Amino acid sequence: MPPSYRINNLLAEKPLDTEITVTGWVRTRRDAKGNFSFLEINDGSCLANLQVIADDSIPNYDTEVLRLTTGCAASITGMVIASPAKGQEIELKATTITVTGWADPKSYPLQKKRHSFEYLRTVPHLRPRTNSLGAVARLRGALSFACHEFFNQRGFVQIHTPVITTSDCEGAGEMFTTTNLDLDNLPTTAGKVDYQQDFFGRRAALTVSGQLEAEAYALALGNVYTFGPTFRAENSNTSRHLAEFWMIEPEMAFCDLNGNIDLAEAFIKHLLQYVVDNCQEDFDLFCRFIEKNLATKIHNALTTPFARITYTEAVEQLRKSKHKFTFPVQWGTDLQSEHERYLCEDVVGGPLVVSDYPKEIKPFYMRANDDNKTVAAMDILLPGIGEIIGGSQREERLDLLVARMTEQGLDLDEYSWYLDLRRYGSAPHSGFGLGFERIIQFVSGMGNIRDVIPFPRTPGSATS
Ligand code: 4AD
Ligand code: MG
User: Fold this and answer.
1) How far apart are CA 100 and CA 98, in angstroms?
2) Hey, is 316 helix, strand or coil?
């Protein structure tokens, strides 16, 4: 049996005059005069296709090879030879071709031509077979590895926090309830659903963040991180929001806001550097076809220290600018994405850290600053993306935390376990969450978040 090669390894090793087997999907077939054909084969291991030459010495040349079309799957054995053609060093001279799956060209949704990303969203199960979505999938896998590499190098322990939770970390009430009650026949008490009869004996939901549980582990192990899916039932139909997205959340004991920001900046830079160093072929595709300025943008983000300003300074900058905003800016209201983008793209021209937001617009767990008006929060904004990271130093003082939670109308009994972390061995601690899809958008230049996750879930849409 000749050795099997994946195309990425084959193109790297170039084992000339060796008999090998490759498997993959036909991208194109071109027939030449003199009873032979060129097949472009892609196996997903890399962007490049392998050119295969098939001629009528192959037993099934007339009956099958000449019927191969885009999307067919085949196993091909042949000799690796030097290629006379431009743009490739080797090609495969086939001796046998076994077709394992046909793809009827009358109905196969992917044709040779370039399809729009909108169209490809209608076939989420087939779109990874295209150049750009295949590249995104490899990039996503590489970035996931780079996240673990970064934290592993620094001695952080990965914690698997629960997907089903009973606490609303962000307090925004945007949770998907999980239940096995009969929705057509709900048990009620005094006109309300009786969750005591539900699976967990109480109301539970899909998590919006692993932070609260990560805090418990940080206050035992020191430095931890989570990397998991999170769910938000927010009705935001934008190119930056998903109802199901992945978040990386480090949490550090004995760490203040500045240490938190330093880690966040190092983390983003590590991810960008990893892509530049390890994903060259796919990154080149993004630079050429997706975002013209991508290489410069990434280079700048890598080589420049992130600008750091406070929310109050940001508001001053915005108020004194001549720019016309749809939403007025005043101290105390949340920055809209138009404000964030203006600061990041026009004022700073690169990544920007905004810290110390008014406490009213931030969740209960953020640490109160001495001014009693702001909290030790930080958001990191990226050009073209807006918010990539949200984080804070956490309120470690029991009395202040209880007061804040009471103010926000939270049920202290529900969060009793969380308060225990302040009752027993409390310590200053900090953490943040990085939106995984948004960093993929930033490094690839992909404009719509639906195109950087395999099967996107958005309001009104969930396929597979
Ligand atoms: O700012 P957020 O809501 O912060 C938290 O959830 C904290 N508990 C994190 C922490 O401190 N451990 O979300 C963090 C990041 C955002 O900056 C954004 O990048 C991403 O998660 N994000 C979303 N990404 C895609 N779709 C959505 N609907 C998102 N909501 C937030
Ligand atoms: Mg946020």
Assistant:
1) 6
2) helix
Whole-angstrom distance, CA of residue 48 vs CA of residue 50: 7
- Pick the closest to residue 392 from 195, 237, 290, 252 (CA basis): 252
Domains of the chain: 7-101 (2.40.50.140), 127-172+208-451 (3.30.930.10)
| Residues whose CB falls within 8 Å of the CB of residue 170, separated by 6 or more in sequence, listed in order | 208, 209, 363
Quote the strand ranges of 83-199, DSSP E: 90-101, 157-158, 164-165, 177-178, 188-189, 192-193
Helix (H, G, I), strand (E, B) or coil at 392: strand
Distance from C-alpha of 352 to C-alpha of 340, rounded to nearest angstrom: 9
Ligand 1 first shell, C-beta below 6 A: 169-170, 209, 211, 232, 234, 241-242, 245, 247, 249, 387-392, 431-433, 435, 437-438
CA of 231 to the centre of ligand 1 (A): 10
- Mutation probe of ligand 1 site: the residue of 247, 354, 381, 458 with most atoms within 8 A of C-beta: 247
pLDDT in tens, 325-378: 999 999 999 999 899 999 999 999 999 999 999 999 999 999 999 999 999 999
pLDDT, tens digit (0-9, with 9 covering 90-100), for 241-288: 999 999 999 999 999 999 999 999 999 999 999 999 999 999 999 999
CB 163 within 8 A of CB 206: yes
pTM given for the model: 0.96
3 state DSSP class of 86: coil
Protein residue with its CA nearest to atom 31 in ligand 1: 435
At 241, phi and psi to the nearest 5? -120, 140
In angstroms, how far apart are the furthest CA atoms of the chain?
86
Residue 366 and residue 376 in contact, taking contact as beta carbons nearer than 8 Å: yes
